[in-house]
Amino acid sequence: MRPILMKGHERPLTFLKYNRDGDLLFSCAKDHTPTVWFADNGERLGTYRGHNGAVWCCDVSRDSMTLITGSADQTAKVWNVQTGEQLFTFNFGCPARAVDLAVGDHLAVITTDPFMDSPSAIHVKIIARDPADQTGDSVLTIKGPQGRINRAVWGPLNTTIISAGEDAVVRIWDSETGKLLKESDKESGHKKTITALTKSVDGSHFLTGSLDKSARLWDIRTLTLIKTYVTERPVNAVAMSPLLDHVVLGGGQDASNVTTTDHRAGKFEAKFYDKILQEEIGGVKGHFGPINALAFNPDGKSFSSGGEDGYVRLHHFDPDYFNIKI
Amino acid sequence: MAPAQQTKLRWGELEEDDAEDLDFLLPPRQVIGPDENGIKKVVEYRFNDEGNKVKITTTTRTRKLANARLSKRAIERRSWPKFGDAVHEDVGSRLTMVSTEEILLERPRAPGSKQEEQKVGGDLAQLGKGGATLMLCRTCGKKGDHWTSRCPYKDLAQPSEGFVDKPTASEAGAAASGPSKGTYVPPGMRAGAERTTGSDMRRRNDENSVRVTNLSEDTREPDLLELFRPFGAVSRVYVAVDQKTGMSRGFGFVNFVNREDAQRAINKLNGYGYDSLILRVEWATPRTN
């Protein structure tokens, strides 16, 4: 395959997200402007100007009309996808890290980093249908985990929130009361910072990637560990194919060591694993730095990766990819 | 006039001219469709090699794949005007490019074997294609058939001799950079120069030196020290590390203070299973230079 290279960002990529139809690709980077691209040919549709810091995460509503972004400038912003206009700004005292819209798009979970004296927190906000009615109040604030919460997503039927972060523990919270329901135990769980978390298409299980050079597959309700994928590089990004039983892990050595070692030692490929057999299927090379973000097109026929090198690479699979046998 | 012109023209051009002349005799190209099924017919007339007029009908079906896949909303979004920085995009900015490089999904070659080893093997194999005789099995002596590590007679062969000069040579390259032709040699190291300190240091490194090969990639110097210390005082431990990848190259040297300790270590640890590999421990051959 010949990947499409998109060079719209001047700093390392942090997050990639497809909309539900799979025709738009949203990219966030450490420069201040999230960007939207056409997912088929990689043409840039627009940018969302207004943030004043690195943008860590984004999510797009099911109708592809609203975008929510979380940024290190201590705000989370709601945008009109079509015009790039800012609809609302949530202000926090600390950098916002992860954002995720609930099923139905009326709730959003936003996590904030520990900053000054305040610890990290998970906030639940109501997203009003009409931007004019939007308020900045939190419905629920959960505090407790130490260190950054790198990802927080909604569980089945919006009844739970799943969070994971620097303390290497996956937690399931009740989204109504904020009570801690389940916690991954230290023995079976990750040993180092969890950097990525992604849900399966049907929402029955999720995948976490960690700096301990492994990715783990968990049941979303019971938090039982289903599979472990061991690799030889720290995992910064994970993705699951919606079409085949494939898991993609992206990562590479720490960005600060990239220039001091040979590029072969970096291991900057996106690695494909069989979801069930936990065996490596193959690798896709190309980035000149660690992969920070991965996303699968909802049709499962293409995927994109964003790297520390500032490039988004959009890969449309060759036909033989779909007949790979282990 | 006419014959004169013909002499000027070369026969190749003449033929081409001829065909052009006759082209106007052919009926024009006809395009029918595409109809509602996307079927398009193109009718063309041409002269074949024998000069006969031939009618060629090409039937093609055009499918609009993109439309079949995209939802109505997505098609609508296609026509959205650009916004933000994308409005003022220069034509020459070329933000989106198709990779000039063909990227393949690289399959891992043999399941169970280590990635890094394969890579090195792959590189060497490519070199071998040029040089042809680079692949030489040190166990059975076969050329170009397999690598030493893949030798089918590996278990039958006596585990000794082999590895005579290769590791030492590369170790010398890594540590002391043995002088070779064409490279800069500091005056103190040149032939004929006094080298009291240099040779002194070298002797110390060679003293009671034990070579350890077939180390696993994860083995580091502290591990080796831990392994060899029970036999006696160790003065130096060295594990060869690839400068580019930072990976262990699978061999190292241990210097003992006493020769007897070294001999005991060799007796005991040669053939010892360490980290899933069987160690080979022997006296390091003294450097030839």
Low-pLDDT residue intervals, each spanning 5 or more residues of chain A? none
Q: Count of helices of chain A?
A: 1
Provide a count of the helices of chain B.
9
Q: Kindly name the structural category of chain B.
A: alpha+beta
Strand content of chain B: 15-25%
**Mean of all residue-level pLDDT scores of chain B:** 70
Cα end-to-end separation of chain A: 20 Å
Instruction: Please report which band the strand proportion of chain A falls in: under 5%, 5-15%, 15-25%, 25-35%, 35-45% or over 45%.
Output: over 45%
Strand count, sense and barrel status of the largest sheet of chain B are: 4 strands, antiparallel
Overall helicity of chain A = under 10%
Biggest beta sheet attributes of chain A = 4 strands, antiparallel
Shape of chain A: globular
What's the gyration radius of chain A in Å?
18 Å
Distance between the termini of chain B: 86 Å
How do the strands line up in the largest sheet of chain A? 1-28-27-26
List low-confidence stretches of chain B: 110-132, 158-179, 196-200
The count of DSSP E runs of length 2 or more, i.e. the number of strands of chain A, is 28
